[in-house]
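thoughts on both lines:
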Amino acid sequence: MDKVYIIKEEGKKAVQDLLEESKKQRVDLEKKVSEKIQDAISKKDVFTRKDMHELQAKIEALEEEIQRMKSKEKMFFK
């Protein structure tokens, strides 16, 4: 009976080790794929979400500046 218990425990350990290794390999693969995608994007003229947010911020700043200029213009040319 002891041999069966030892084999069962070794089997559980082997399965746990396989699951952990599988998870590690999946994480490594996801990281490598992400790096390759980022590398490809940086080499191409691709408009990214980050680019969009940066442009939105610039547009908002310009719109605010235009509003300030219009307000000053109204004060001077009433």
Summary: The longest helix spans residues 2-43. Helices lie at 2-43, 49-76. The chain has two helices and no strands.
